[in-house]
TrEMBL record:
SUPFAM superfamilies registered for this protein in UniProt: Nucleic acid-binding proteins, Translation proteins SH3-like domain
GO molecular function per UniProt: translation elongation factor activity
Protein's organism: Aequorivita aquimaris
Lineage of the organism: Bacteria, Pseudomonadati, Bacteroidota, Flavobacteriia, Flavobacteriales
A Pfam family annotated for this UniProt entry: Elong-fact-P_C
Biological function: Involved in peptide bond synthesis. Stimulates efficient translation and peptide-bond synthesis on native or reconstituted 70S ribosomes in vitro. Probably functions indirectly by altering the affinity of the ribosome for aminoacyl-tRNA, thus increasing their reactivity as acceptors for peptidyl transferase.
InterPro entries named in the record: Elong-fact-P_C, NA-bd_OB-fold, Rib_uL2_dom2, Transl_elong_fac_P/YeiP, Transl_elong_KOW-like, Transl_elong_P/YeiP_cen, Transl_elong_P/YeiP_CS, Transl_elongation_fac_P
Intracellular or extracellular location(s): Cytoplasm
Alphabetical keyword list: Cytoplasm, Elongation factor, Protein biosynthesis
Family: Belongs to the elongation factor P family.
Translation elongation factor P/YeiP central domain ranges (all copies): 67-122
UniProt-listed NCBIfam families: efp (TIGR00038), PRK00529.1 (NF001810)
Gene name of the record: efp
Protein's UniProt name: Elongation factor P
Length: 188
């Protein structure tokens, strides 16, 4: 058993007869009244995101997990196929438990959280950033740079990302997987 002070991003807990992964949290200590922790929880079975507030010292049941490296192979509709890089066994996961499936390129190495009690995969964690090639974007208009002007671009996985005006088709860009935002243009 853990308490609300042990809450951190990525922690898996048992709550309301389901297993949830903490995707955001904020410890709040108001000037008046007791402290509490405001959280955003994502169900690992349905993918539904809920907001919840735990009071200070509240007991939570954490789920023991282990991490393993898997390589993304391909997807069939909502089913995504992964291969364990150690023993080459394959697993299939629903799209709902993936954080950002639209940024996953075939061959990408990801971390899969596995429940130690029943060996069921709980969640897939992407690397902090990925490098993808821009497949289509409109040309930037010169003189339209009074502020940080951006334009939409489609990357090789099919995701749409807002990029600066100087990015062209064929450029490789680094994308932050947590926010799904452009970080920088990669040099060849």
């Amino acid at each position: 058993m853990a308490t609300s002070s042990d809450i951190r991003k990525g922690l898996c807990i048992r709550y309301n007869n389901d297993i949830y992964k903490i995707i955001e949290f904020l410890h709040v200590k108001p000037g008046k009244g007791p402290a509490f922790v405001r959280t955003k929880l994502k169900s690992v079975t349905t993918g539904k995101v809920i907001d919840n507030t735990f009071s200070a010292g509240h007991k939570i049941e954490d789920v023991r997990v282990e991490t393993q490296k898997f390589q993304y192979l391909y997807n069939e509709g909502d089913m995504y196929h992964f291969m364990n890089t150690d023993d080459y066994s394959q697993i299939r996961l629903m799209k709902d438990i993936l954080d950002t499936p639209e940024l996953m390129k075939e061959g990408e190495i990801v971390t899969v959280l596995i429940n130690t009690e029943d060996s069921a995969p709980l969640s897939v964690e992407m690397p902090a950033h990925v490098v993808l090639e821009v497949t289509s974007t409109e040309p930037g208009v010169k003189g339209n740079t009074a502020t940080n002007a951006t334009k939409p671009a489609i990357v090789e996985t099919g995701a749409e990302i807002n990029v600066p005006l100087f990015i062209n088709e064929g450029d490789k860009i680094r994308i932050d997987t947590e926010k799904g935002q452009y970080q920088e243009r990669m040099k060849e």
